[in-house]
Write a structure and sequence with these properties.
31% of the residues lie in helices and 23% in strands. The strands form four sheets. Strands 1, 8, 9, 10, 11, 12, 13, 14, 15, 16 and 17 form an eleven-stranded mixed sheet that branches. It has a four-stranded antiparallel sheet with strand order 4-5-7-6, with helices on one face. The protein has 506 residues and is of the alpha+beta class. The protein starts with 9 loop residues before the first helix and ends with a strand. Helix 15 runs antiparallel to helix 16 and helix 16 packs antiparallel against helix 17. It is found in: Periplasm.
């Protein structure tokens, strides 16, 4: 089948430029070297780093807070709040903290804050969607003001990889103001301070001049909610923004000849996938799940719609993550085989299937998937919702989640445990699949420090996914930013937007 390319009309471009002029008031302030203006897709759903971790939230709060450890631009795990660490046993790890970190209110960051942050995010009653990434941690103990010990339930090889996204919050402030108030006015220790949140419009940060590490180059930063991609592009071209996220390949192509802006592109750890609810009809039938897998032309999606920037994958992981198995194959595009399996299922295959999506995703891809599935004989209808609603339903477990959903998963950890466990294991609200063998393998892989044993277990999990198709891996996602010509910023596989790693050039 063929995928129609999008035609860009002059009228649409003029409307986009007009929208860029009017979207934020009659006379929007121009971006300048004193202020970085970033256009997100949506406003953050949370600025409390332990409540949510969708991209639009993460882009902002990651600069307000420090994490226990982080990754450098090469992808290596390096110190941040923790200056060093050592394993006391397979289940105990001790961190020595930097002595010179203060929160934005001037109070000192200590081991009590680290222990509190760990216990907060691992408390099931707190309800963090990140719980599955940290639930192997059973205790956090402050041994002294500068030392903290974490205890895990068995060996946990992905611990450090997961801790790169565990932000440290100030215990005294959170306990004093409560969860809701802290979300509205977060206090961290990062290179930027929270200034204001104009709901539905923008979040404003200011530089933390007392920051212990590399200072931010921008005195002020504004993150704006700009849902329309054409408007984000027009803002860059008009000079009213400095950085725009989530551009598509067509927009990247337009920036090749732009005078003010450029495209910044990199392959990420994020894997795009189609999730099938295996506990409800019609995808409780494995043959129909395989039909869906055979119906998807991954190469067609990447080459026809994504400009070839992304990379088709045959497993639910990407090559930059531990657990990727080189050479592993899965169902490949075969429309005739898909049609045969749908025909074999009879009337059950004709029921209407809801395909859940949200505006943050590339709707060209969602619509192409719908077309491909319907070409195979299924009856798929797209159901659009805002990102917050999409996320809430996606985490609701198989009884409440949609029949079919498009997603792009990143754990920001570059480890298979952060992808396969939450999307497959029965304990995760994200999982719409039940397979005791897969669960056992995932548990085995996160309970040994032996890399070879972990890889062997993940290989079997990938093979189960290929055979039963509870999810259809699609492609390794490329991240495409638009940036003003004099902004230096290197995209990373974990898609972290570290403001203090950016710079202006003349």
């Amino acid at each position: 089948m063929s995928i129609l390319s999008r035609t860009t009309h002059v009228a649409a471009a003029l409307v986009a430029v007009l929208a860029a002029t009017l979207a934020f008031g009659a006379a929007p302030a121009q971006a300048s070297k004193e202020r970085l203006v970033v256009d997100l897709v949506n406003e953050p759903s949370s600025l409390d780093p332990q409540v949510q971790w969708n991209p639009d939230s993460y882009y902002v709060y990651r600069n307000i807070f420090d994490n226990l450890v982080t990754r450098d631009d090469k992808g290596e795990i390096v110190p941040q709040v923790a200056a060093s660490w050592k394993y006391l046993s397979d289940t105990e790890i001790e961190f020595e903290l930097r002595p010179d970190i203060t929160f934005h209110d001037g109070s000192k960051l200590t081991a009590d804050d680290v222990a509190y942050s760990v216990k907060r995010i691992t408390d099931p009653k707190f309800g963090s969607p990140q719980l599955g990434q940290f639930d192997k941690i059973t205790d956090a103990t402050a041994l002294s003001p500068s030392k903290v010990k974490l205890t895990t339930n068995g060996a946990y090889p992905a611990l450090l990889a997961q801790l790169v996204k565990l932000s440290i919050v100030p215990k005294a402030i959170v306990e004093a103001v409560g969860k809701d108030a802290f979300n509205l006015k977060p206090v961290g220790s990062g290179p930027y301070k929270f200034e204001a949140w104009q709901r539905g419009v923008q979040v404003s940060l200011v530089r933390n001049d007392a920051y212990w590490g590399d200072k931010g180059p921008f005195p002020a930063v504004i993150f704006r909610a700009v849902p329309d991609g054409a408007t984000r592009l027009a803002n860059l071209q008009a000079g009213t923004s400095d950085l725009g996220v989530t551009l598509d390949s067509d927009q990247a192509g337009q920036l090749k000849s732009a005078t003010r802006a450029k495209a910044l592109i990199g392959l990420t750890e994020r894997v795009a996938y189609l999730r099938l609810n295996t506990v409800k009809p019609p995808f409780d039938n494995v043959k129909l799940r395989l039909a869906a897998a055979y119906a998807i032309d991954k190469e067609g999606l990447v080459d026809g719609l994504l400009g070839g920037f992304d990379k088709p994958v045959s497993q639910l992981l990407t090559p930059v993550s531990f657990g990727w198995i080189e050479g592993l194959k899965g169902p490949s595009y075969d429309l005739a085989k898909a049609k045969a399996l749908v025909a074999e299922a009879g009337p059950a295959a004709k029921a209407e299937i809801e395909l859940s999506t949200a505006p943050v995703f590339d709707q060209r891809i969602v619509q192409a998937i719908q077309q491909q599935l319907n070409d195979a004989g299924l009856n798929v209808k797209i159901a659009m919702s805002d990102m917050a609603s999409y996320l809430k339903r996606s985490q609701a477990g198989p009884e409440a989640t949609s029949t079919l959903s498009f997603g792009r998963w990143s754990c920001a950890c570059q480890d298979a445990d952060g992808v396969l466990f939450p999307l497959i294991h029965k304990s995760s609200g994200w999982s719409a699949y039940r397979n005791s063998k897969a669960d056992s393998l995932l548990e085995e892989a996160r309970q040994t420090l032996d890399k070879d044993k972990r890889l062997a277990a993940y290989k079997q999990v990938h093979e189960i996914i290929a055979a039963e198709a509870p999810l259809v891996p699609l492609y390794q996602a490329a991240v495409i930013y638009g940036a003003t010509k004099n902004l230096q910023f290197k995209p990373t596989p974990n898609e972290s937007m570290f403001l203090n790693r950016m710079s202006w050039t003349d």
